[in-house]
Specification:
This protein has about 120 residues and is mainly alpha-helical.
Length: about 120
Amino acid sequence: MKTNIRNSQGGFTLVEIMIVVAIIGLLAAIAIPNFVKARTTAQKNSCIANLKQIDGAKEQWALEQKKAATDTYSLTDATLLAYLKGTVLPSCPSGGGYTAGANVGASPTCNLGTTLGHTL
């Protein structure tokens, strides 16, 4: 009777596994900084879009209320919030806060504008 005996078993060697782990580590080292940069850019663009929305609502409110460029306004004013899509002031996705300009002619700002570029 003839029997086939195999001494080697199928599998990967330690060197092959180490090469695969090194390649995965290299790809992760390249990809992770790009994901962080993409997230930061998306938050900045979202903040700028919120500032444009607030500015548009303020301009529409000022036109309908016959306000001059030197008149003051507040971002918490209920009549101004009615011109936004919701009834709540949008928030900065990076954790910043929005402030009203000094008057109707000034643009709203984000307090992260000087450090992260969140400006109109």
